[in-house]
Write a structure and sequence with these properties.
Layout: E1 2-6, E2 14-18, E3 24-27, H1 35-40, H2 42-57, E4 65-66, E5 82-85, H3 89-98, E6 113-116, E7 128-130, E8 137-138, E9 141-147, H4 156-159, E10 163-170, E11 173-174, H5 178-183, E12 196-197, E13 201-202, E14 221-224, E15 227-230, H6 242-249, E16 260-262, H7 278-289, E17 302-306, E18 319-325
Parallel strand pairs: 5-16, 7-18
Antiparallel strand pairs: 1-2, 1-13, 2-3, 3-4, 5-6, 8-11, 9-10, 9-16, 10-12, 14-15, 14-17, 17-18
Helix pairs in contact: 3-7
Length: 333
């Protein structure tokens, strides 16, 4: 099944089911008003949603309409918990080099997660609003999963059963603010503007053989201003898969339905595939030449993040955003 949330003037949007080819959609009215509601009642509503999805894909769903990706909220416009990881340690190594920080040995054995702001995600075609370009605006292409209710102390083996949906995302970062913020020892907040997730969230079975139970085995394709930044494979060089990240997050507490867990920036050690963020590219330039040549994002720049299946068809739809200067009141971080 594939799900999206239409903009309707309400904070959580209106839940629709989307056809596998992303061409048609149908309201989930009478089953669940929002995706969060569906996740909270998953055992009850899943059979009804599956039946409606099957009708939609067969061209038999009443009320079906053409699916337009430009009128969407994030699949989950807000949720109770968003935890982002750093499963691709090549990325962690490179960005730490960029700020002259050491890579702790512990990170090779113990997953790293931080709690991000989950009160307001932005839609996949909404602008990236930032007040100052000198803050070092960057995209970060990632994969994420969404859980149902997860019990405290869940094992890695059992954690895989709690993965209900998969998404991709652009986790925007302000690189020049990060070092001072992290030096305080409390993690990210000001340096992480609102995150944008893919137009649709999908059940793992939609991935077929590209889902191994814990990772997506497809390249994540990232463009800046129509130029390919990179297409690192999400199934390669991933030190910690999603069941491991879930078990780590649930060691000492339950996770509620609608919890999103991100992989961190997808990154491969094979530099020929490029990168899913500008900071990695800058660090590779520095290692090769002693200088960083590629600028961070500027106002007016466009980014695109997408995943294609083996047939070249978009799996999640495309995140397409333009960097726009925020004109409201600003206090320097």
């Amino acid at each position: 099944m594939k799900f999206a949330s239409l903009k309707n003037g309400r904070r959580d949007g209106a839940l629709v089911l989307v056809s596998s080819d992303l061409k048609k959609a149908v309201p989930a009215e009478g089953i669940a008003a929002t995706l969060l509601e569906a996740l909270e009642e998953w055992p009850k509503v899943q059979p009804q949603l599956k039946a409606l999805s099957d009708k939609l894909n067969a061209g038999q769903a009443l009320g079906a309409f053409d699916f337009e990706q430009c009128q969407l909220e994030s699949p989950l416009p807000r949720t109770f918990q968003w935890c982002d990881g750093s499963a691709y340690l090549n990325h962690a190594e490179l960005v730490r080099k960029a700020r002259n920080a050491e890579m702790p040995e512990q990170l090779y054995h113990d997953p790293m997660l931080y709690q991000g702001a989950s009160d307001s995600f932005i839609g996949p075609r909404d602008p990236i609003l930032v007040a100052k370009s000198e803050w070092g605006i960057d995209l970060e292409g990632e994969v994420a999963i969404v859980t149902d209710d997860v019990p405290m102390g869940v094992s890695v083996e059992e954690a895989s059963k709690h993965i209900k949906l998969v998404m991709i995302l652009n986790d925007v970062s302000l690189r020049n603010i990060m070092p001072a913020e992290l030096a305080k020892g409390f993690g990210f907040l000001v340096s992480k503007p609102s995150t944008a997730f893919s137009p649709v969230a999908i059940t793992p079975e939609e991935l077929g053989g590209a889902w191994d139970g814990g990772k997506v085995l497809l390249p994540l394709i990232c463009h800046v201003n129509d130029s390919l930044l990179g297409k690192p494979d999400a199934g390669v060089d991933c030190y910690f898969d999603f069941p491991r990240l879930i078990a780590h997050a649930a060691q000492t507490r339950e996770l509620r339905a609608g919890t999103i867990i991100g992989s961190g920036t997808v990154s491969n050690r094979d530099t020929s595939v490029g990168t899913a963020c500008i900071q990695e590219k800058r660090m590779l330039e520095k290692l090769a030449t002693g200088e960083m040549h590629t600028p961070h994002l500027q106002f007016g720049d466009r980014v695109r993040v997408e995943m294609l299946d083996a047939d070249g068809q978009s799996v999640f739809g495309a995140i397409e955003q333009t960097v726009v200067q925020y004109q409201g009141p600003v206090k320097n971080p």
